[in-house]
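Hey all, quick one. A colleague (J.T.) asked me to put the S-adenosylmethionine job into the tracker so the inputs and the structure tokens live in one place instead of scattered across chat threads. No bug as far as I know, just bookkeeping. Sequence used:
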Amino acid sequence: MGKTMIKDQLNRPLRDLRISVIDRCNFRCTYCMPADIFGPDFAFLPKSELLTYEEIELLARIFVDLGVEKIRLTGGEPLLRKDLPILVKNLSAIEGLNDIALTTNGVLLPKLAGELKEAGLLRVNISLDSLNDELFGKINGRNVKVQTVLNGIKAAQQAELFVKINMVVKKGLNESEIVPMAKFCKEQGLQLRFIEYMDVGSTNGWKMDDVITKKEIYEILKEHYLLEPVDPDYFGEVAKRYRYKGTQTDVGFIPSVSESFCSSCTRARLSANGQIFTCLFNGNGHDMKELMRNGASEEEIRQRIIDIWSGRKDRYSDERTEETARYRKKIEMSYIGG
Ligand code: SAM
Ligand code: SF4
Ligand code: SF4
């Protein structure tokens, strides 16, 4: 079947796919995998429950047939998944896929950045929430030093990957780092994206009061810098971007809580254990692993994905309240990726 005809079967556009390749992580960020819950006895997925690379590639090919142009690999910490460059290489061979990106805490980039670039990775988002060692060690829950992540950033730049920095801002935790992070990234020519703290999963104890909104961060930045709005690059671009006047450096905001963008959401998510989620905050995944392992044909899998996406009605962020945050069943970030 021709690609346009297949895309026409979807009643909502599907442009981008996030794939979590592993649920484990070498960090225990307080806002994502709090150490008291994700402790030594936490039952992570056994290897047999993770999708194999062949299974991921098959699903990715079908998603690309259905209109996906961008794939982002995430986790947990994706660089902990063995032989990740092999997956990147095979994904980059898929015709019609224009962009392969990765979100990582950066620790293993000095080892892997070159290989990943060679395999076809184009872009990497590296998470860094503070430049202060003591605070960063507390946030990442493992006392990892800022320099370790800076080494990862440098390795990604040296490998000529396009780098963005993700900073989650949480009230009472790291708002003091907004200006130092902006200054550092501006000086380095790195695009920084401030991410509003979200109620992902049910373990991070999220409260609306803990959110520092895009507007609040913008007001703080405006006291130090002249900022000009930048037009979105494409329909559904999630980040609201500004440019430091007189430079080529952008700073962005992901205002998932204060300015929801559900009406333009074109993103599907595939969890580490092979479930499709049509929304980051939807607790009901659609199991593709069993379907594939029970011998479904490619056509049957494709039809299942078409049915799932066509039946999609998610608009969680449009409807979010303190109540929905507490009571709705939601998938953990480490299963599904950011
Ligand atoms: N381990 C990798 C990392 O940290 O970049 C990839 C997975 S992580 C779940 C993906 C992104 O989600 C990171 O940028 C992280 O900061 C962000 N994130 C995690 N928990 C969050 C939360 N509660 N609110 C907003 N962003 C969050
Ligand atoms: Fe790990 Fe990333 Fe979650 Fe931090 S945000 S605990 S690095 S998955
Ligand atoms: Fe998309 Fe769900 Fe986020 Fe809305 S809340 S933008 S539907 S992922």
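Adding what we noticed when we looked at it: The pocket of S-adenosylmethionine (ligand 1) is lined by residues 25, 31-32, 74-75, 77, 103-105, 127, 166, 168, 195, 197-198, 200, 204, 333, 337-338 (CB under 6 Å). Residues 131 and 180 are 7 Å apart (CA to CA).
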